[in-house]
Design goal:
mainly alpha; 0% strand
């Protein structure tokens, strides 16, 4: 799920910082929820990508150590986890704001399309 990559999602806080609204409790809580929901969605994308790249990753010296490629995490468990994370993340994104939900859904579609079609 590459939780260490969640740091990239901290960019969601830029709007709060630059608008001077960082200390507004409601906006801060919505941004934290946005960070968490987007992080869950991005983790689901990483799992989906690992499933899509399974055969290539198994022969790669570093990627072969990833849980799906190494067999530590089954394909079914990865798919089930990705589905759960995506459902929770997208659901939370739409609860925050319909536009944020749509952007998150578009991010999902673009990345799934990339994983299965564009990069091949």
């Amino acid at each position: 799920m590459r939780i260490s990559h969640w740091v990239k999602n901290l960019f969601l806080f830029a709007a709060l910082i630059f608008s001077g609204h960082l200390l507004r409790t409601e906006e801060l809580l919505l941004t934290v929820l946005g960070f968490l929901s987007f992080s869950l969605v991005s983790s689901s994308i990483y799992l989906i990508n690992d499933i899509a790249d399974l055969e290539k990753d198994r022969i790669h010296p570093l990627k072969s150590k990833r849980p799906v490629a190494s067999g530590a995490l089954s394909i079914n468990a990865a798919a089930l986890t990705a589905t759960g994370l995506l459902t929770i993340g997208l659901g939370a994104s739409f609860q925050i704001n319909s536009r944020f939900g749509l952007v998150t859904a578009l991010y999902t579609v673009v990345n799934v399309f990339y994983s299965f079609f564009l990069k091949k």
